[in-house]
Predict the 3D structure of the following.
Amino acid sequence: MRKFNFRLLSLTAAFCMIFGALSPAIAAGEVEGKRCVRLGKTASVDGKTLVCTLKADKLLWTASGGSSSGAPIPAGTLSSATPGGTSSSWVKWNKATCALVPTTAPNEFPWRADLRATPNLKIGYGTQAEGIAVVDLANESMKSNVAAAGATYVFANYANPDAAKLLDGVKSIITRQADVVVSWALLAASMDNIMSLYKAACIPVIQVSAVGAGALLFGPDNALVGKVQGEGLVAYAKKRNWDRGSTPLTVVQVTAPGYGASINLRSSECVAAVQKAIPSALSAKVVLNATTTAEGLSRMNDWLTGNPNARRVLACNEADTIAFGVANATSAKNRLAGVGGVGGSKNPGGNFVGSVDFGFKNYGSFLVPLAQDLIQGKAVPTTIAPFLRFATER
Amino acid sequence: MSQTNLEKEIIFSCRQVSKHFGPIVACDSVDLDIRRGEILAIVGDNGAGKTTLVKILTGAMTPDSGQLIRNNNPIVFESTRDAHANGIEAVYQELALAPNLDVTSNIFLGRELYSTIGFLPYPKILARRKMKALARKEIDRLGINIRDVSGQAVGKMSGGQRQSVAIARSVYWTSDILFMDEPTAALGVKESKAVLSLIRKVADTGVAIVMISHAMPHVLELADRIVVLRHGKKVEDRLSENIKVEELVRMIVGA
Amino acid sequence: MSEVSDLKVEPEMARPSKESRRYKIPIESLGLAAAVLIIVIILSLTTDYFFSFENARNVSTAISFMGVAAAIGTLILIGGGVDLSVAAVMAVAGSTAAGLLDAGYSAYVAVIVALFVGLMVGLINGFLIASVGINPLITTIGTGFAVRGFAYIVIESRELNIGNETFLFVGRNDFLGFPISFLIMIACFLGVGFVMRRTIFGQHLYAIGGTPDGRMAALAGVPVKRRTYQMYAAGGLVAALAGLVLATYSASATGNAAMGLELPIIAAVILGGTALGGGRGTVTGTLLGVVLLGVINNGLTLRNVPYVWLFVVQGCVLLLAVVIDSRRERKDVK
């Protein structure tokens, strides 16, 4: 009689248990024995066709034929994303004149970012910097989306605010014969120069964040940013009943003129949104001479010292770096405060409520399809905005 | 020759020259006369003030008080350039050579021969060929054994060669007075002999030579007159004839 | 005090003899030239678009402004000095020119005033170093800080765009097939090279740099104080020129232009064979150093290399230069 191999049985049982625990994770990546590791691969389950697609930088099996905006997904689409907003004016790239020409906006479906394979395309990307956390997320997103499309990646670091390195980067992209370029140039003084260089090389440009004459603009609508921040702060205040009772609520606009009028809307529209929701709120303004954390800290500190009766404070900011300093000032002065930021940085806690997240880690899933549409002569909006979200998670 | 020495005219002198560095008195009211064509030796123990005195007389230092007189005219030296312009040359102990430049460049350092373009005063272009020829001639005339007067940095030469270059430079520009601070100190026997005969050759042309030296035999052999300094003061000033070494030592030490 | 008049000789006598005209190319420069050649060959074979006229133009215009500053930096370093205010002077020159152009003045006025500002800074440096006697490193760091502040103040902390066609002509056009800014750089190298090798001024700078504080040169009768003034004045003036070249290149001026450029400039100069202590160096070497750094920069960008690696590479190249320099010094002393 053969001995029953208990050891083998227990090993098998253990293996089955471990495998079972892991299977949900594997299931997402494995269907019908096929793993979702290559874009575009299809699998068929219960008569439904699944496509391996790129979603927020992960490869997942998704049902093809579904879309959030209603327009049918063209064949060969690798992934889709719907932007936060598009302008009503649309343009088309004219290869002969090397310029954007106005064209009629479609009646039905607004523009949607459909990524497809374009292996013969050279997509240029001039990033503003490397080493800033949120910008690195955007850089990675660009890189992986270009790789997913099978296109050639022509990369340069503009090293903002170095005007000479900006020019070196632009020239390098032109020399490598990019077909279309996503350009994150922020130096207003150099914009005309680099736009004329790209135009002379007949390369269509998508400018990120900062406006460039003759280029598409991808970036948050700063007025909307302000509104989202304000609404987020209102929710925070209402939950704590700061809009009621005898102690007045003060909403402070922390603004840095050095950022320029457009970015200043992030704080002014935030204040407007708070006042709209809480009409009894008092308002105040703190003006910064520099766009640094230290400056935010000291100016807010000065304001708090000069306003000892402001015991409930909401602060509207234009960037996270400044917001961190403002939040520290309110904590140090022991005031009840809710401080908002812009940029989607990690929430450090304390009086920092949350930040308007532009979704940097998905920038590529908008910008690369936009670039593809642009160079292929399709009609595109002149301005596209990413999703805005007031992120409060710690 | 020693008899007529005191009758020769005085071409350079100093009166009541004093110099101190903080509490240390280097020179204390020194009077000195230098006569045409004489060989004058300044001797003294370490710290007696010899080098300081020579540096004052040659423009490398300014005195705290006192006067310099050149050919019966009072004069002030702001720098060695002023001294050069008045015909006073010196070979210092540290040689004042630019170690990274060649012999020609060192001989003409500060007094380069140049040409210009048209009527423009600048740039002053170095007249290399002419300077090289003149340097070669001077080196050969003095019997100095150096193969390359251009292209070879003097910092790479031997101590004796460097000393010779410094002497050649001063001799080239000398008009009537040449100061030398310890000309044979760093040299071996053979090279010392060569330098001493060089000094005599120069003196024979009528140039007055003022030398500081620790080497008693050399002093007694060459000098017409000896000046002894002790603690910054001049304590002896006499003709060298008939002075023995022991007496010289006694004068220096002050026994 | 002035050169004796009979020291001036007839022009025929002034031509350098065959022996001194034979420019002994230092071995170190040959090594550097070989390094440049090897890197160019490697990049040409491995990197698309590197070996092309267009890219060569990109490199030559990109290095122009740094090259001009490195040329005069060589002169100052040979003379035993150091000028760390060069980048700040470049910025203030660009700001001054842009501010004047923005206010409606002509390009010629803008250029002349900017050069004058650089000259003034140089004279201030010369005064503090030669007359007051402060250490050049500390002095030029200090003047650099102050001048950098003025680079912002002059344009009220704005970022100015330069649109003046006359001014931008230099940055945009060619002459005899070469970009004008590149030709300006070459002219500066030729000029500094000529001054260092063929004029009295250059000879005196070598002598002064040969010993600490120029002691031996002073004893020998070189007018050290005057030369120091002239050296730093030239430094300020040519740094301003470099700043103008940068301004025509980037068609803009900001207070932080050329920020941090002092170190790559000194790196290029030392790489080229100029001793940190002075008394030794050639402009040929510096030009090779500038080209080497520029080619490495260009190649890394073409290869999509993350920006941070450029700092690592430049740092390593500088370290290498310093090590080679110190071994050269030891060889000389032996």
Observations:
- The radius of gyration of chain C is 20 Å.
- Chain C touches chain B at residues 1, 3-4, 7-11, 13-17, 19-21, 24, 194-195, 198-201, 203-204, 206-207, 209-211, 215-223, 279-280, 332 (CB under 8 Å).
